[in-house]
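To illustrate the input format used throughout this study, we show a single complete record. The first block contains the structure-token representation of the backbone; no residue identities are included at this stage. The design step must infer an amino acid for every position from geometry alone.
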């Protein structure tokens, strides 16, 4: 989708064009309006405009001067000129500025639409030439290792990814791991960490280890490797149809893993411990298989080096096992930090579904979940610079305390009530912030009406101009430039009524260097010129 800006000092023409064409159908997502070249240049600093449609003859800077400025600052913007002057000199200047087309007023909407569609097609063709298929394919190939590792990490920690997305990504990343097929995990831990080795040397060592493993496993197993969040090298393996049937898959993998250890020790002169998981279905079993390999290192291997161990998954399928959803990314802390309330509530739903579906009645699980929620809720309150009583009331200590003998149902009720209170507090704070910010903006405009700009306001409130512009529009219902114009016109009216000042003095007082431009704006706004208004008093 593209964005367009229409510039003309005839406001009715700008407004008419802004609503008169089928912009969505043309591929235009946003239509920006400016009533002078100067206003256009200011707005262009904060808008991602692709196409500029401008009149030539305007008060102040002309359309051709505007196009020249735009070409110097934003070479990607393409321009179309509208003019009532059918003169060769104008057309020649427009062509010299690289204008796409030169249309005579009055221009029919259909003619402008045809021109813009041709221009959009030209922009698209240019973009396709810039990012040709071969170049994109090369860049994609170069990024494949990172893309594969990122997907593997997400699956290892149990990130919820729809089946269609997993299948599409494995196909796109050229990973032969169909949904539901049997897989096992090999986890390698490099034992000798050389503190003097820099990041580049360490990366080369890991690459060499992965290359050895890939070569040893090739032919009998499909392999997908990466690093987990603990920096273990993980190899996901799936038996290939052509693999030898003389050995059981588990025995075959063990044979290959021991060979990998030997090759690494012989050629790289380092020791490596290896843990082989049980078998499971892709991708559902990945988190449990991965956890079993981690537990094998922490519970059995410890500080031993050059070890090999089976991680028997059955020990993790007992009645007592770790909660999954509570720790699966995105975590409660991650969601509440960025105030993703809907996602937080959906995660709560999944947490309690897990507690319910497995018939978990142990109070330990209830307490574990409560502790995680209390941590997240407290973190949010403290991040806002508040204490719990300021958000949950004077009975905060009682309302945040876990009652003895709480059931899953009681914890659920407590969790959602506290969440509702936090959301209400957040909404109240957001409303207060916006209201306070608007007051600051209004006050700044009142005191700096002569030279106020969107950038100066944004600098004053320490925010980005685009955010200020969008906030002002949503809170006040009018554009910032329109508000400033209205305030200047009302100030001009007051000065005409109460002060014995010349028109050019009033123009300068409210921020217009050219009296002619001020007179034109005043007449557009009030229907009469400043002279006519003053004479009527």
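Output of the design step:
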């Amino acid at each position: 989708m593209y964005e367009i800006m229409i510039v003309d000092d005839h406001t009715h023409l700008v407004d008419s064009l802004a609503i008169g064409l089928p912009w969505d159908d043309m591929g235009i997502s946003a239509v920006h309006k400016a009533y002078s070249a100067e206003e256009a240049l200011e707005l262009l600093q904060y808008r991602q405009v692709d196409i500029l449609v401008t009149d030539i003859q305007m008060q102040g800077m002309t359309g051709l001067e505007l196009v020249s400025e735009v070409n110097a600052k934003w070479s990607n913007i393409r321009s179309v000129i509208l003019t009532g002057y059918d003169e060769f000199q104008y057309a020649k200047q427009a062509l010299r500025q690289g204008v796409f087309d030169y249309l005579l007023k009055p221009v029919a909407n259909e003619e402008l639409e045809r021109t813009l569609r041709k221009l959009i097609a030209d922009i698209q063709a240019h973009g396709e030439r810039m990012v040709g298929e071969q170049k994109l394919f090369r860049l994609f190939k170069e990024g494949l290792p990172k893309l594969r590792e990122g997907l593997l990490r997400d699956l290892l920690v149990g990130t919820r990814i729809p089946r269609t997305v997993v299948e599409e990504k494995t196909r796109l990343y050229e990973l032969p791991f169909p949904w539901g097929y049997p897989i096992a995990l090999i986890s390698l831990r490099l034992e000798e960490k050389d503190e003097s080795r820099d990041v580049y040397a360490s990366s080369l060592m890991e690459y060499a280890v992965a290359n050895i493993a890939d070569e040893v496993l090739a032919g009998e197993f499909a392999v997908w490797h990466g690093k987990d969040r603990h920096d273990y090298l993980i190899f996901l393996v799936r038996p290939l149809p052509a693999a030898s049937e003389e050995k059981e898959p588990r025995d075959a993998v063990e044979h290959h893993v021991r060979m990998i250890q030997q090759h690494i020790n012989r050629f790289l002169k380092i020791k490596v411990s290896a843990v082989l998981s049980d078998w499971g279905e892709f991708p559902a079993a990945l988190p449990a298989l991965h956890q079993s390999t981690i537990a094998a290192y922490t519970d059995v291997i410890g500080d031993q080096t050059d070890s090999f161990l089976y991680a028997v998954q059955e020990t993790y399928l007992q009645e007592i096992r770790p909660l999954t959803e509570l720790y699966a990314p995105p975590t409660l802390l991650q969601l509440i930090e960025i105030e993703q309330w809907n996602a937080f509530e959906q995660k709560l739903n999944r947490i309690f579904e897990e507690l319910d579906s497995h018939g978990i009645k142990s109070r330990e699980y209830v307490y574990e979940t409560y502790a995680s929620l209390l941590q997240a809720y407290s973190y949010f309150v403290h991040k806002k610079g508040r204490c719990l009583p300021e958000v949950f009331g004077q009975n905060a200590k009682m309302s945040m305390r876990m009652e003895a003998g709480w059931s899953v149902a009681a914890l659920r009720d407590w969790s959602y009530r506290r969440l509702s209170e936090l959301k209400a507090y957040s909404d109240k704070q957001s409303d207060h912030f916006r209201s306070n910010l608007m007051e600051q903006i209004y006050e700044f405009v009142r005191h700096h009406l002569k030279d106020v700009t969107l950038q100066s306001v944004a600098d004053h409130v320490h925010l980005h101009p685009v955010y200020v512009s969008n906030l002002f529009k949503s809170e006040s219902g009018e554009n910032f430039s329109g508000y400033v114009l209205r305030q200047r016109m009302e100030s001009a009216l007051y000065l005409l009524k109460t002060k014995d000042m010349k028109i050019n003095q009033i123009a300068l007082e409210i921020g217009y260097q050219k009296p002619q431009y001020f007179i034109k704006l005043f007449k557009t706004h009030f229907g009469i010129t400043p002279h006519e208004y003053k004479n009527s008093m």
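Structural context for interpreting the output: The first strand starts at residue 2 and ends at 7. The chain has four domains: 2-130, 139-316, 332-431, 448-536.
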